[in-house]
What we know:
The structure holds 2 protein chains of 2 kinds. Chain A is α/β, with parallel strands linked by helices. Chain A has helices at about 1-15, 35-45, 50-65, 105-110, 120-125, 150-155, 160-165, 170-175, 185-195, 435-445, 450-465, 470-485; strands spanning about 20, 25-30, 90, 130-140, 140-145, 155-160, 200-205, 210-220, 230-235, 240-245, 255, 260-265, 270-280, 290-300, 305-315, 320, 325-330, 335-345, 350-355, 365-370, 375-385, 395-405, 410-420, 425-435.
Amino acid sequence: MVAVAETVKAVEALAAYEHGFVTDIEQEFAPKGLSEAVVRYISAKKEEPQWLLDWRLEAYARWLQLEEPSWAKVVYTPTDYDALHFYAAHAQKPGPKSLDEVDPEILATYAKLGIPLREQEVLAGVEGAAKYAVDAVFDSVSVVTTFKAELAKVGVLFMSFSEAVREHPELVRKYLGSVVPPSDNYYACLNSAVFSDGSFVYIPPGVKCPMELSTYFRINAQNTGQFERTLIIADKGAKVSYLEGCTAPQRDENQLHAAVVELIALDDAEIKYSTVQNWYPGDPETGKGGIYNFVTKRADCRGARSKVSWTQVETGSAVTWKYPSCILKGDGSVGEFYSIAITNGRQQADTGTKMIHLGANTRSRIISKGISAGRSANTYRGQVTAHPKAHGARNFTQCDSLLIGKTAAAHTVPYIEARNGSAQFEHEATTTRLSEDQLFYAQQRGLSQEEAVQLLVGGFVKEVLQELPMEFAVEAQKLVAISLEGSVG
Amino acid sequence: MLSIANLQVSVADTPILRGLSLDVPAGEVHAIMGPNGAGKSTLGYALAGRPGYEPTGGSATLDGEDLLELDPNERAAAGLFLSFQYPLEIPGVPALTFVRTALNAQRRAQGLPESSAPEFLKAARAAAGQLKIDFDMLKRPLNVGFSGGEKKRMEVLQMALLQPRFLILDETDSGLDIDALRVVADGVNALRSPDRSMLVITHYQRLLDYIVPDRVHVLAAGRIVASGGPELAHTLEAEGYDRIVGEAA
């Protein structure tokens, strides 16, 4: 530990320890740029065990060998990794014991976002409303996790990643990187070296998680990358529904978000993972600023008859590169992907899924709804493969694109590969334009232009919205409408 | 009710209506007939406020309210309904949802309380029954995959539920066989009332055997060139447009 403390000192001296003042909270940054020293600094800041530091360093060494991928249909100014802070923490002791220790400005931020962090606030809400537990991650650090005690009663572990490393190192060590190994891809490798925090969930055998779990990510600091890591394990027969929400303030420069999410479902387990992503999309006219959302999400349906369902509503970010996938290893396992991706202004999204059928009688279902407006570009990229042992594998893919206006683009790039004769894959795709005639028709019946867009788009995305947990579906529907505001006329 | 004075409308800078004047008093049904290209559909679209149909002069008021100043949805809330010659398909939105959303948008604009679900469903069932529309069809996306006749019936169903004060029927008979025409005409006739007026735009006299107008106007080259009683429609049918239009020109 002495060596660790010395590293911290050395690194701090190296770059003259910085305090960033963003809105009103005091921040603590790692020095700009990435080096082995910075990786050591992050690990030391988090007081991590040696094995995790070694894991990070190995990932860093590999990252240096990798090149940023360029196959996605997106164009952007590459990130200058030397100008980036790889760690930003609000200046307070890690792991506040209660909300009273949390910086009130941060609490105000979450209140503004409408995310209840006080359990009594959730409980005081509408009677009969579903309870949901929240892990709030502000820049690199988890601020607070609610309802931990209540969840612990049934054996559910829900905490920040850092806490899990301290309290359940055996679980973290067993599963970390087992679905997305550090060498998987450029961004996942980067994340493995420098990830800061995130959420950890473990549902013990046979337990149905009694409430909705959720994480809210907020990027606040300037010139900062956010690299969170989420690890969810549903043990045999366990069941959990999890939602992540993301926002960031409006800034002129691009910010990098390179997260990794790993899901593991053992025999008969079920995980439902929903995302409502609303990172700042950049200026709609000039395309200036906005988040680069380069995220690796993958589920391992390791056990027989396990099931993982991804639902995503992607409305934000300047550039999105994201393919939540399922490895269907267990016999009879099921993977689902429901997606709404909306691009407007100058946004670019290249998103989709992979369904890798390894086990016998595995099934998957993909419903993708892409909406492009303004001068944006929206690409669905999907891969469905059946390996030789995946007898009786089945996939159904429905991939619909909706164009609004005359300057938006939609692309569909499906890869389908069946390596055994008993696999049955279906792929359906449509592209339609929301026409001015349709809008006029709806307006003639009494709807304002915005209401008309909302109704018509609502019809287009309904199939996916209804997969979201109810209390978020309404929010997501509003978000869909807001993100398309001013897209016509 | 509807009062149009010297209305001039251009589409893509080409004048289509060139000084059209017309009065439709409350409770009356007027027919607009005319050869192809006379500007019949333009009149309907201009009154409803379709983008691209630019009024360049004159006026159009509904019960004294200047229609040309209003957005299309505001005109709808003021009681104007245009039945389209080619009703649009609305994927993903069930017919019932579409009409109820429209009705409630109009009610909000009028400062009235929204229609409750049971109240609306009751009205929808009654209207569907009258128009011989299978109620389950109203749960399907509006007009998607519907036949021409079914689409026209859905237009009449919407009129019946939205209860507009002023109706414009644009070529409602096109694409209808005689049985469907009768059903649609019965639906429209059921909406005739002393405080509701209609403008029936049609190329053929056939529709006017079923929806009998109080007045018939002939539109040619963007102006009303002749007006008369229902018998004028028969004269046109017998003699063709050329003579009347020729005389006027």
